[in-house]
Each structure stands twice: as structure tokens, then as C-alpha cells.
Amino acid sequence: MAGSGAGGMIAGPGSKENGGSAHCSAHGLLAYGAGSSIVVVDVRSMQLVVVLPMPSARSNPMLPAPYVTALQWIPECMSRDLTQEVSTSHLRLAVGDRQGRVAIWDTAAKDIVVWMNLETDRGRLGIQDVCWVYGHPWLLAVIHGPSLLAIWDPYQARPIWKYDAGAEYFSCIRCDPFDARQVCVVGLRGLLLSLLVNGISENDVASKHYNVVVSEERSSGNLGMPSGKEGAPSSASTSAGAPALAAYPGAVAKAMFSPRTRSLLYLVYSREIIVFDLNFGMTLGTTPMPRGVGKLQDVLAVADHDILYCAHQDGKLSVWVKKEDKQLFSMSFTETLIPLMGTPVPAPTVLAVIHCPLQVQVQKFEPGRESTRNLQLDLLPMPGSAPLPTGLTENIKNDVNSPQLAPAEGNLLEVTFVSITDDGRLWQWAVGSKLKLGPESAKDSSPEPDFKMDLTMQLQLLPSAIKTLAVPVPSQLAITNGRSNAGAVAVPMVALATQGGTLELVDAAANAVTSSFAVHNNSMVRGVRWLGNSRLVSFSYSEVKGKGFINRLVVTCVRSGQSKPFRELQKPERSPMRALRTSPSGRYLIIMFREAPAEVWTMTKVPQMLRSFALSFTVMEWALPPAPRPVATPRSSVSARKPTGFYSTPPTIASTAASATAAALPPKLANQDSVQKPQGSGEAEPGESFAFALVNGSLGVFELVGRRVRDFRPKWPATSFVSSEILFTAMAYRMPHVVMGDRLGNIRWWDVSSGHSSLFNTHRGGVRRIKFAPVTLGDLSRGRIAVLFNDHTFAVYELDTQDPVANALVHPQLGGIYVLELDWFPLRADKNEPLLLCIVGADGSFRLLEISSTAKPPQGESGRPTLWQRCRPMPLCSPALLPGPHAMALRMLLQLGVKSSWFYVSPSTGAEILLGTRGGDLRHFLLESSLPEIGEKVAAEVLLKSLETYRRAGRLLDRERVAAYEAVSSQGVATRAAFTAAHFGEYAEALFWLQLPKALALLSVGSAGPNAFWNSADTSPVKRQVQITPREEKEHSPTAILSKPGKSQNDATSDQTQLARESPLSTINLPFRSVDAIPCEQAAVTAAAKERITWHEKLTGTTATQKRVHEYVSVGDFESAVTLLLSTPPGDENFYVDALRAVSLATAVSPALHELAVKVVAANMVGRDDSLAGTHLLCAVGRYQEACSQLQDSGRWIDASTLAAAHLRGTDLARVLERWAEHVLANEHNLWRAMILFVASGALSEALAALRNAQLPDSSALFLLACHEAKQHAMSDLMSKEELDVSREKVEIAGLELPGDLSKHADGVVAVCEYFGQYQRMLAHTVTTVSPVTD
Length: 1335
Prior knowledge:
- It is elongated, with a radius of gyration of 37 Å.
- The chain contains 26 helices and 62 strands.
- It is of the alpha+beta class.
- Strand 58 and strand 59 form a beta hairpin.
């Protein structure tokens, strides 16, 4: 008969049982657990995207679905492979629940693609946390129960590695943003488990254990206090499989990797913040909570300047600033995450707080102005990505040679958070901070931060569980104008009555809550009905012991929001109210009581009771308007005499009576309401009728005309139709048909005009509710009904078929959810649109179920998009929600450069572009560029036309992003590529493009040797004179400033920055320090290494001492290293080794024999697995290249880069960086981090080969254009400063002038250009064959 699909859903509020499960993806999609469902919200527009209900367990489908306790988005980028089917793997979401199930959702298809269940001796263990790790492929680390950690292969749905911590309670899993292979698991009692995942087999996982010393108050208070106090074991802890969130709800143990420093971990417990160094395996600092500050809940984000943002269990946000040269923090700001105004009493509880990366910070400086506008870009590190700064500064200059201006105050940082409360609301907060850099401040003093938090947006969902609903119905007394005789169109609103005493108005077209009315003072609303299209009437009752019930009736105006009670009695009543029934016009109200007479009220401005019925009603329903009939045209007057009826199918059941009634009516009456009026009634005042059934099985139809109640006088069915033994439990009445259901599952219909009747048995048990489906002109069926049974299942039957049961759409359960109430959504504009069934689930959710007929539309007609797809109040601008080919088309246009005017839509019509032109040649929207054209020239125009639907809908870029793109689009290929990657949530790639111009600029001045950038050594600014000595060459190199005596680190940094500023490519700066920002920027690398030394000064122990000595040697501080080595006590087993190293380091300048002896000793030490000692001896004799090789052989890549940055230069430094890049690409599988290392080492051809092997044609082409742009800038800079002959440098390949070894690999460059053109042609073909998606 029909098919069904999910049309929309609004879940109830979350609770503490969800354990604060929430996560925001890099695409700006926030997912959080609300009961047994997952709610997905677009953070940019704060709109509900989709709700994913978890199904019940297969073993017992009649039980409700368990609570969602953990979830995380997969950190995967959008696929650019056009040769395969469109992939939505970037929208996969891992979800764990209380019953130990782990589901991998495809949010685009709204389906579960993988189930993972772990059976243990203790049964199924509830899920505590989930985390994606490794990345090639992505594996899933899951905490099962209190202490079991498993790493799953989701593609095969099997665990590859397990670990049981015994008595420990695991709390959370975190992945290192530097390396997705590095994972840490934190326990409540201080256990820290560090994992290194190198593959997909059990032997590929290596683990280390650390014990973190937590305060005595925290350790004993949360895990050992007597039962009944906060943090004590809850009732759920009696189960052996209860995770930490159920066993100890008040205990907290969270972690976050530093996005700035590798191997640095921030641990948060209830009363303290601990900084742990995984490299040393020791705690660097502990910050206890001040008195009066609530317990911590989680660490949310770590900004530059080491600013921590933490959430507290009392619903507050705190900001902590690191003390200088110490890993200790002081609280600088705190604020509540719930608005103080308009908050109900008691105030709602904050369930979770999430950091949301929304923007990239683009800060504009113009000459002659002290301050300009700031565009924020907040970058979030992803697992496996490089360490990322929170912002980037883009300096826009009118003159390239003009000095860059510094802002009057420090850079403005803005971090976005979303707090989720248990009343169904989401609050978006923007926390801004300024670093006040006054001129009088000393160099060694840290700037004072100034923080401010503002509420920016809000999303309101359901505040509590829903109990019932009401939909407005067309009125038979208000016929619309025009040719249709259908009833007046109802408003597209659904009224929901909640358990918390509120009425919620839901716009079904937008799937959003539009208004909320607190009407019944926290008492459960028992029923609600519409009074016309603008008023609601609802009731509740409360029991007074020994006295009866207090019934409360309230009329609410949805336009003004005012509520007014009526029928207020002084004393309690004997019986509570049972139900309300309102007439379609809203003029009459019938109040039904339990074991008491029903009352009829006229709902005027002041409601008045007309009379009471001393009849024992079981069910009663008002008559809905009859199904609309097409109006006969003058030429078809003959057809009125033909008994064609209402249906195109053979007459059956309801259609037989309907066609007979239509044929018997005159033509004039056939176009009017089929309300049967008694003789002598006249036409002065129309009436409304209602049908009812009594306890004894009797049926009746009454009519209300004005203030009079009279018998409708229907034509009765056969006597065998009803019996005194039948108890009717449900009824639906649409003129002229009455459909009834009884407690035995029988469905009866009766035509009140003709007396015809029939019945059939559903074999489903008692019937609870029956609803007629709305009918529009041209419908093939007018007898479709929805039936709700007593077992909370439902079915849809066609009364216009020979066998309604055989053609029924039956839902034994809707995804494991019991159905409490249902009704049809009344608005349906077109016959091809599917029907919408409004459903209230037992989980407190509201759902719109799409019911579509299997009948195909006539040839040449296509179904229109459903209502909720057309009426979203704000467009969703997330590129992750676009179809793959269209998203790639937008990506390419942003990379190539498009004018900002193309994005703008007129606010008046919402469809016309401001330039006033439509169609034609759209290439004038592309930015003009002097760069050579590679690929297909006409592809851009095809892509512009393919995205016209999204552009008109405003779904490409929001206003803020358009302004940001306009500010950076003219600053070069790399800048546009960085913006595009950040907009698509690929922050590792964005960081590479930000680093690339400065890395190429440093490369052009000889950071990796004279021939790494220039084709001719005579052109290189590093080697201009043929007779220059090696010592002079060393002194004039960019890295020599680090080793000059008497030059401070600040001077060295400024000198190297000035070298980069000589090139126009330095228009993009990274204002905040990051260790891996640019590996060839040796001053920054050395400065970061010296900062780490200050953190480890107080660490003691043999292992810590050896590593501290290595840090001193790496930065060239031999004096401190000797001092530390001489402090080794004589009884220590390392005394002689330390003494030997101290002597060697003290006599760094030695004869050749001494050098040879030291090398032999160093080799012997390496053979004894003492690589650090051998490395120190090599450094003592100046063999830094060999020392770096030893460090890399032992896996100390960061130490090797630090040593190389401090002591190596030119090609020696390039070899170290290139080997590191090969390791990162082959073992860590981090493409973009390897790319910047290849560029820093001068291996540009290797970088291009890596992009080709990764099948990224657009990035490969952009890389060539960026290198061409860098070469052009460098050549023009040399020609402007010195009259040099650069003719040798003009070697073009495919129109490109490329630096370094790229000019020697013409075949590879040509292959990339051809590959890019082929990709453009394929993309242009694909986007024209894929239809745009409206939502």
C-alpha cells in the first residue's frame, strides 16, 4: 500500500543518565545524547539537523531503548574521489549506550552501518567513552564497563586488543592531536594508560602505565566515602558492568592533549588540574581548586598562551591562565552558563559544555589605522593533525614594502562554547579575551588577559517528555475562496503537551519549537486541543487526598502568549477530567469526566457552559469537513449525471457509500458541505455535529446549532452492526463516515447519510485511537486511516481496498519506541506529497513519519519536496551536508577565487543576486589572476551554474564567512586554500597552506641550502660571491644568528622574522607560538625547547636527570648540562658515565685523537641501549649530524629536530627534516605534517609526489601555483633590490616557473596538470548529473 520514512523528529531533553555525552565535529555539527536518541545540531545557525533514535535491543524489542552514554564524530575529511560512489564517511558517528552496544551511524542516511557488541563473563558492560584512533584505517577505542578497554576494527566489527584494569574505573579516552596513534586512558584512581597503536593486529599495540598522584581529598572523597554522600556509589553500581558514570556519578577524571606541545597532557579531577608530561612520565604541576569554587567537570579547550577553559559541575565556566615558566595556573575568569534573566525556579542543570570550532581568525591591519575589524577563525586540532594555533593573522597592506603595523592591544581571541541544559535548551556562548600589551610592561612579564562572555545564540527543544499532542483541523464552517470546496487551511503548527506543565508549539515545516507556554505550574498536562487556529485549551488535574480532584482548564492564545483559566471551582470535584473534544471551528468544547456527566461549553470570549450530558460516553468525536471534491466545469455538466463517484479504483467499502451519496445529491449540493440538516432548519445558522458511543454499545449523532443541541437524525446501519456486548474504544468522524474500533480489534465504518456499513478484524487487539488522513484534490484514496492499538503499536489501513488488512502499513514498533499518541498533519498542498503522521513516543519525543503511497504519479509529474524541506528559517551552510560532488565544486571555486558578490542574495526576494544579472557568462564572478591557467578553462563556469540552487538558497557561505573570504581571497593561492580547508573542517591542511608561504620565503634565503630554491647558485642571496669562505657563509646564513655570541634569543627571533618579511609571501603570520609551526624556523623551535626546559627543572630521578641533560645539550647549553652531570652522587650507577660525559662536554674543543676516542666510547654506549649518552658525546665533539641520526634511529624525532635547529644549517638541516618527513608520512600517516617538513627541507618534488600518491589533484595543482607565486615574488624582490640577472631562473614548465628541484621534474609537473584537468572535467560532469538537495 504505502511506504514510510522519517520526516522529522524532536527529542526530549537530555538527563544526567546520558553522562554528558556530546561532541562537535570539525564541520560544525554538534551531536549530543538525549535519552535514547542522538540530537545533531548545526552550531553556526543553531538549528536542529536530525535526530537519530537508538533502536531497542534485538533480544527484547519490547523494552525501551537504553540511554546514550558516549559518542564521537569520526575525524575524517570529505572524500575527493569522484571515481567511486559518493561517500558520506565523514558524517559517521560512533555511539555507545548503557547496554554495552556500540553503533556506527551514517547520519546522512540516518541508518546504522555497523553494530559492535562485546559479550563478557560479567554480561554486557555499559559504555563509558569512545574515541577514534590510528587513522589508517580508523579504529575505535571503547571503554566497556568499569575497567575494560577494547580497540575495535569497525569494518570487521571485531575487537583487536583488550585490556582490563581490574579495580580501576576508566573514565575517558583521548587521542593525541599530533599523532592519531597515541592514545591515553585516564582512571578515577589515578591510573594513566598510554597506548601506541601501530596497526590493526594485537601485536601492534604497545602500552605504558603511569600512576598520577591525586590529592587525598579527591581520592578518598569520591571513591571511598560512605554511601549516601555525593560521589558515593549509586544504586547502579550494584551491577558488575556499570561504568564509572553510573557507579560514581560525582567523580571526574578528564584529559586533554595540548594542541601546542607534544606529549603534554592536561588532567582534570574534581578539585585539581594536573599537567603531565608523557615524555618524562612525570607530573609537571598541580593546581588545586580555590575555596568556594565548584568541582570541575571537564577541560574544554586549550588556547594559545596556555589558557585553559574548564567547565564546573555547578554550571559555570572558568578560564585559567598559566603562570610564567611553570605549569601552574591561576583562575582569571568565571561565569555561569545559564542566563540570569528569564530562568525558571528551580534553575535548570547544565548537563554538558562543548567547545565548538566555528571560525578562522583573520585580523586586518591597515597603515595609518590603529584598530580595524577582526574576523575570527577558531581552529580545532584533529586527531592525527599537526599542532594548531587558535588563530592566524592576515595583514592587508596597500604597499608591500610598507612596515607592518602592530595592534594597539593584544590579539583578540574568541572561543565558542555550547552549554546543554536539562530543560531542552542549547546556549551558544562566545568568550573573548584581549591580551593587554602596555608599553610600560616589562619584557619578562606576561600580559594581563581580559575576558568577556556573551550569549550569542540559543536553540530551544522540548523541555520535558511529551504526553499528548493536538493538530489544528480545517473547519467546515469556513470554506476557502476559489474553486476548491475544502475546509479552511489550518496553521502548520502542532501543539505538544509536556509532563512539565508546558505547551510547546512546533512548526512541523521547519521541525523546530517556535513557542513555549508555561501554563500548568509544573503539573503534567493531560490533554490539549486547538480552538480554531489561534487558541489552545488544555487541562490538568491534581488529587487531594480524601477530598477529590482539582481540575484546571486553561485557554491560551498562541499569538499573544496569554493564558486564562476558566471553570474554576472552590472545592475539589469527585471525578477528574478524562478528555477534551473541540469542534473544528473552535466554537464548542466538550469536557468528558471519569464517571461523571460530560459538559458542553461555548468558547466565546467568556466561556459559558451550555448543558451537561448524563450519558455514559465511551468515545465521541466531532465531525471533520468532508473530503474535497473537484468543482465541475460548465462543459462537464453531463458528468454530474454519471455515477463516477470519488474514486478511480473499483468501488469498495467506503467508496460504495460515498459514490452513492454523491450521485443522489443535486449538482449544487454536491459542491457544498454534505452536512445533513433537518427540515425547517433554514440556512441562517450552520451547525456542527459529533458522533458518540455509549457503554451499552449504542451509537448516536448530535448537532449543535448556536446554543441548541438536537438529534442529527442519521440513517442507522443494520441491527447486526452493533451489539450490547461491544465496547467501542476509538472513533473517527468525517462527513459522512464514522469509523469505530473496539477492544477486540474490530474496525467498523458507517455512512450516516446512507446507512451503509461494514467491518473487518485487525487481529491486533484493542483499538485506542483512529484518525482520518487528510485528503487533497486528486487523491486516489479518501479512506485512509491510522489506527493506534492498546499495545502502543499502530497501522495505516486503506478502507478503499478489497482487503484493508492485506494492504495495511503495519508498524509493530517504530524503532523500538512505544507510540502514546498519533494524529495526521493536516496541511498537504499537493496530492504527490507524502502524508505526515505526527507521533508521540514513550521516550518523550515528537516525530513526523512520512507515509507515501506506492501509486506512481502521472507521467511527466514529479513529487514536490516535503514541507519541512522547504521552510527552514535559516539555511544550513555546512559543506558537510552538501552532496559530495557539489561540495567539491564549492571547494574548487573557493580555491580558484570567486568574487564575494556571487554569494550575496537580495534580502527582499531571497532569489536575485545584487548585481542584477542572471544567467549568461558567469566567469565574470571569478577573480582576475595573473597566474598561469592550468586544467580546464571552462570548468569553473560549469561549477558556478551547478551551484546556483544552493547560492539562491544561501547555503554556500554565511555572511560572516563571506566577509572573511573577501578579506583573504586576493592574498594569493595559499591563503585561499587555507580558508577553504578550514571551512571544510580540514584544519591540518589549512595549517599547511598557512605555513607554506613563509616556509618558501625562508627556503628562498637559504634555510635548506643555496640550491634548494634557486636553479642557479649565483642567483641565491645566500651565495652571491664566489670567493666566500665557508666560515663567512655560515655567519651569513639565516640560522647563524642563533649561534652568534652576545646575541639574545629575542634578537635572533626578530632577525629571522625580518628575513621572512623581506618577501611579500609573509602577509600571513602565525601570531601565537606553536612548536611545529614551521620546522625550518629555527629560532621558534629553539625557543620552544628552552621553554620546555623550565617546566622540568624540579623533576628528580635518574630517568628525569638523563632527559634533562639531553634537553640542555640539544639547545647548546653545555654549561648547564655539565653542572647537572656533576651533581650525580658517587654511589649512583651512572656516576662514571656522567663524569665521562661531563669531561667531554667541558672540553668540547679537542685534538683529533681525543675526538676518535670519544667516538669509540659513544659507539659502545649505543650498543648498550644508552643512545642518549652516545648522542651527548657526539655533540661534545661537534658531530651533530651523526647525533641527529642516532636520535632518529631510536625514535626521538622531536629531539632530533630540536638538536638540528640549534646546531645544523643548510643541507645538513634539510637531510634531518627530510628523513623526519618520510617517517611522518610512512608511519604516522600524517600527510599535511609531512608536507610542511618536505617543503622545509627543500624536497619540493617529494612533497608534490606525496600529494599525487594521496590522489588530491586540486591540492597538487594549488601547490604548484603557490610555488610559482613564491618564485615570482622572490625574483621580483631580488630584481627590485639589486640589479641581478635572473634569466637563468626563467625555466617554465607548463607555463609555471617553479623553484628548487621541481624545475628538474618536468614529467611530474606535467602529469599533475593533466591530472587536475581530468579531475575538473569529471567534476563538471558529475555535478550536472547529481540533483541538488534542498535540505
